[in-house]
Structure formats: structure tokens, C-alpha cells
Amino acid sequence: MSKSKQQAYSTIVSANPYKGDYYVGTFSTLSGVISPSFAKEQYAVSFLNTKSYISTLIGVSKNIPDDDIYDALENKVYEELALDMAVEYHIKYVEAIHRSSEGDRYFHVFVVDPLTLEQEYVQVVNNIKYIDQIVPVPLLLKSLYIKEIIESSGIHCFIYFQENDAFFCIYNEQEFIYAKSLKYSLKQMHERFCELIGEQIDLIKFESMLAQEGLNASEPDYQKNLIKLFGEIFLHINDVLTYAKRAYDIKKIDEIFIGTTVGNVLGLDEYAQTYLGLKTAPFDFNYGFNTNGNVDQIHQLMHLYSRLEADERYECNFTIFHRPPPFAKRDSGKLIIVIAASLAAALLYPGTYWGLSYVEEFHHAVLTKEYEQVHIEKTTREAAINLKTANKNAAQALLDEQKNAYKQKQDTLTQVHEKKVNYPMKAKILADFTKSFNQYRVQLKSLGYNETNTSKEFTFLLTAPNTQNVTALLKYLTDFKKDQYKFNLEMISYSEEDKSYLSELKAVLK
């Protein structure tokens, strides 16, 4: 744990939302917890499986300022991945340092559906109330280089089989460059193995067999079909590796680290080395934690990653389950503080009141004497004021008349200015609407325009292959152009002649 976190948090809890297990770390000790609970002094971390997000490499111009990078990437991601414009996806990114060109900067962009976060972490949040950090699983591997657990540079490939997922990841010169979800998780391995042997065995038995016997199963039929299963697995891995090398211009993989959540599988790294023809080592590192038995490498990576300083790790945090703010910054806390202050003021009031009453009596006597002198002066001045008030009223009437004349001229000039300068160009408006129609596969059949002193109205007769296109278009317009226009969809009808749906959309310029 970094020095800053040591001061703020006494423990770190890691959560696997897909398997429902938790580990608590205190300095160098790591232990499993069956029933975790909320504790404000603990730092909570979790991860996203590779199949829970979409990732892509996006390039943008180097001329774009850093403050505008997110908006530029967001626009390109929605366009290139054809994302639903009605959904507000969670988007994070890290810069691809080794991929920059003369004119562009490249970024690894991670996209998560908001429903994924709400559904996959509901049980974790029920138990520990908040999650400080949710990190895409391949980015956790950065801590292996920062902590010098892997000291060499070069190009490394990581393959790790989890119960619900399996990921393939490549780091180049200690920086992330590619990750993909593999076809075979441990559950998928188990299902395929049962198909091959023609009988159903328990998942726990299958995982125990891998952990204890590896690829050299004691039963000949099991061993034969395990070899066949892993042959299919590595055929798939080889296809992924071939694609990654071609797509990212990788000449050589220096080393592959391969492992599983059930621990080392005897013979797996040798099998991988033989099949892929590359130097292979177990995905089993010495993190420096005292543990009892086998601990999932992902849990250990989460604890290691949480101990890094902010400038050492990838800032790619997808959490929406933030810890509560300090008491004084909550609305309820502010209310309680105000009530307490009011009560204190109420208790001080009686004593203050009696003291002030004596002061006021003395003050009243002094003011009475002053009043007698001032009253005489007041009477004299009132007469002078009344005369000046009459003169003022006459002048004010003349001024009001001049103001009314000025206001009429000003309104006339304002109307002329509005017509000449601020009158919206109809061609520009039509081009903007046409772009929206094309985006939702809606064709403009005819156009009408009506302008009065109080309104400017466009009438579009639209045709579309189905009603969903029209309703999706209307939703987009009402969401994003409601400040400019008032929309009204008069009708949707079906044309037998054109085999399409007709609708009349009215847009009134505000």
C-alpha cells in the first residue's frame, strides 16, 4: 500500500463480482473473507472481465488540446463502434504511447454499458456499500512492471483462464497494447470436456483434476480428451496471437505467461511452449503477500495495483459506486450542523435579551431629547421638499414622454437587426435536419414552410421502411434539439403503394 493510502485506509478489500469471493489485505497479509461488510477505513477495489467491456484503438489529431481529447474520442467511438446514441456509455481511455505517429495521438478506449455496472456489481455493493476503483483486468498487469516483479522489457503475452472468462493480453515495453476475451473459460472448458468424454462430471471435480493432476490425468480416457481439449484451446489462442501480431506489427513475442484461477496446471506451460513455439512461463508471481493456500492471481493483482501511487498506474476507473462524502459536506450533515447552531443561539438568547433591554432604555432617553430639536427642523424642511417635489413631478412627466418615444425607436431598430443578423438561414436548418434524417434511415418526401409574425414552422413529410426509424428519429430530435424547436408528429400511416410508412413531422422554431 502506498504511503498516502496507509494514512487513509487500514485495509484493502478486493471483490470478484463474477465469482462472489473477497480478499482483505493488511500490509503484507492477504486472506479470504466469506461475509465482507462495510467499513469506512477500508479501500475497495474490483475489476471488469474482458467480455464486460468493448475496447478499441482510436487516433486523434495532435492539434486537439488535452481538455478536448475526451469529447473527440467519444464522438469517434460512437461513430466507429456504431453505438446506440440514446445510451450514455461509460468511456475511459489510456494513451497508446508506442503507437503515436507524426500527426496523430492514439488511445486505448474502453467502453462499458451502464447496465453492466449496475447488474454485475449489485451484490458487491449490497455487501460493502461502495467500490473505490473498478479497473479493466488487463490494466492490472501494469503493477507487475512497476513493482519489478517482471524486470525485463520486451513484448510479453499474458494468458489467464478464469471461471467465467479467459483473457489474452499483450504488453510492449511495459505498456499495455492489446487485450481480448478468449473463447474458453474454465466453465466452457468443463462443458466441452463433458461433451468429449460423453458423461457429466461436476465443475469442482474438473477444476480439482486440473489443479492436482494437470494435463496428465490418471484416467487414460480423461487424459486423451484433455489433450484434445487443450489442442482446440491453443488453436484458438494461436489464431488470436496471429491477428494481434499482424494488427500491431509485432515481430516477436519474447515470453508468454500462462495460468489459471485454480493455480498451476501441471504441463500447461510446457504444452503452450510446444504448441506455440515460444518461451513460456507460469502465470504465478511472487507478490510478497502472506497467503493461506492458492489465491486467485487476479485478487493479488488488485491488491498490488491498489498500492501503487496514482501517477504509476493507468487512471481508468469505471466505478459509479463512490464512498459517501464527509459528514460536513452531506446535505443531512449540513442540516444537523445548522440545527445545532440554532439551538446554541436559542440558549444564549434570554441572557442577551435582558442585558440589551437596559442598554435600550438609556438609549431611548437620549433619543427623546434629540427628537424635540430635530422635529422643528423637520417641519421647516418638509415645506421646501413639497415645493421641490411638485417641480420634480412635472419634470418626470416630460422625461417619461421622451422615454416612450425613445423606446418605440429602439424596438423598431431591434426588429430590423433581428431580421438582418439573427434570422436563421433556412438552408442551414434544412441541411441539419437532412443529416439527422439520413442518420436514422428516414427519407424526406416533401417539405413545407410557413412563417408568421410569431412563429416559423417547417413541415416535413417523411417516409421510412419501419416505424422504429421514425420513433428513434423523433426521440433523438426531442432530446438534442428541444432548446431550438418544438416538435409535433401528426401521424404515421402505411403506404401500400410505396411499401413504407409515411409520417408528418412539424418543427416550430423557438
Structure, described:
The protein is of the alpha+beta class and 510 residues long. The protein has 4 domains: 1-142 and 288-324, Nucleotidyltransferase, domain 5 (2-Layer Sandwich), CATH 3.30.420; 150-284, ATPase, nucleotide binding domain (Nucleotidyltransferase, domain 5); 332-422, no CATH class; 426-509, 2-Layer Sandwich (Threonyl-tRNA Synthetase, Chain A, domain 2), CATH 3.30.980.50. 45% of the residues lie in helices and 24% in strands. Strands 3-2-1-4-8 form a 5-stranded mixed beta sheet, covered by helices on one side. A hairpin with a 2-residue loop joins strand 10 and strand 11. The longest helix is centred in the C-terminal third of the chain and has 92 residues, at 331-422. 26% of the residues are buried. The model is unreliable at 1-7 (pLDDT under 50).
Total discrete domains: 4
Write down the CATH class of the largest domain.
Alpha Beta
Counted beta strands: 17
Helix content: 40-55%
CATH topological fold name of the largest domain: Nucleotidyltransferase, domain 5
Largest sheet: spatial strand order: 3-2-1-4-8
Topology order in helix (H) and strand (E) letters: HEEEEEHEEHHEHEEEHHHEHEHHHEEHEE
Largest sheet: 5 strands, mixed
- Sheet/helix structural class: alpha+beta
CATH architecture descriptor of the largest domain: 2-Layer Sandwich
Quaternary state reads single chain
- β-strand amount: 15-25%
Straight-line distance between termini: 57 Å
